[in-house]
Amino acid sequence: MTLNGAIETAKTLHYESIVIDTHCDTLTAMTGEGRSLAGPSAKGQLDLFRLERGGVNIQFFSAFIGPEFKLSATHRALELIDLFYREIEENNHVALHAKSSLDIEKALSLGKIAAFLSIEGGEALEGSLGILRLMYQLGVRSITLTWNGRNELGDGVDEEVTGGGLTRFGKDTVVEMNRLGMLVDVSHLSEKGFWDVLNISRQPVIASHTNCRALCDHPRNLNDLQIKALANQGGVMGITFVPDFLGENPAVAHVLSQIEHVIAVGGPDCVGIGSDFDGTDNLPAGLEDCSRLPVITRGLLERGYPENIIKKVLGGNFIRVIEQVIK
Ligand SMILES: [Zn+2]
């Protein structure tokens, strides 16, 4: 095949696939940048215009509770959720707030982007299952239980010396999230916390933006035992483009190798994309913003993956989990 032929084949496959990105920090970035979600914007790495160009059908928008909001965590979450509401309403001709797999179908049939709302940092619950249930009512469908530090739910990766996992409230939260139909996200969680979640959750769990420790030895990444356990339980991990979790001089090739490693260790059903666009200043050359996502499809084709596995990576695996957990 000629080079142009290969590029065209990759484009066709990419745009006919359902593409999901399970993590971005665009809501947080927008609060400081004064830009709209519509785009195209010269600022940041993700907006609706560029998502469309990147062939993204389903995007998770995270309400991230930064450490500086520890004492007003629910307030912060609500302000970011309000920002999400306002932006989706303003752009309802191209996006809709998705709360179920039925909403995904609706968005796809209307040619709109399905926008899911997630929270990064269980601080937002302020130790209350009541607030968890209200967050569900507001349309939150995924919670990253901790960020790097300790909160009411458990210890994040920076607390590893303590050996801490989930607290009793953290365990109760996982059970209640299972009951409500919310994705339990173990990205940023301590290793002990990860195993606690896998022991407790009756539903597949996700790591929305996490890479493999075997390729980049960073505590934010999962080791092979964790990847196998996540896969056995039906879970999926989204490969992130953040340089710290890819290794030195990160390039698109590193992202592809991360995907390959997950497939080698856990099989083709447990890997997806969790970019973390707008959560980092630096990105690998060729993946500078969300419009560049077709390079992943092209790279996987070049590495010899069949179309059915590429479609699983781009979105099929996360769709399966959404159908099972969120319904
Ligand atoms: Zn994160």
Describe this structure in words.
- It is a single chain.
- The protein has 327 residues and is of the alpha/beta class.
- The chain has one domain: TIM Barrel (Alpha-Beta Barrel), CATH 3.20.20.140.
- Helix content is 43%, strand content 11%.
- It is built from twelve helices and nine strands.
- The strands form two sheets. Strands 1, 2, 3, 4, 5 and 6 form a six-stranded parallel β-sheet that branches.
- Helix 10 links the parallel strand 8 and strand 9.
- Helix 1 packs across helix 11, helix 6 runs parallel beside helix 7 and helix 10 crosses helix 11.
- The protein is globular, with a radius of gyration of 18 Å.
- The chain starts with a helix and ends with a helix.
- The mean pLDDT is 97.
- Bound molecules: zinc ion.
- The site of zinc ion has 5 residues, from loops.
Give a quick set of tags describing it:
11% strand, 327 residues, TIM Barrel, 12 helices, binds zinc ion, 6-stranded parallel beta sheet, alpha/beta, 3-stranded parallel beta sheet
Ligands, ions, cofactors: zinc ion
- What is the arithmetic mean of pLDDT? 97
Say how many strands there are: 9
CATH architecture field: Alpha-Beta Barrel
Number of domains: 1
Order of helices and strands: HEHHEHEHEHEHEHEHEHEHH
The first-level CATH class name: Alpha Beta
CATH topology: TIM Barrel
**Number of helical stretches of at least 4 residues:** 12
Please tell me what the overall shape is. Answer: globular
**Hey, roughly how much beta strand do the residues contain?**
5-15%
User: Termini separation (Å)?
Assistant: 41 Å
Fraction in helix: 40-55%
Rg (CA only) = 18 Å
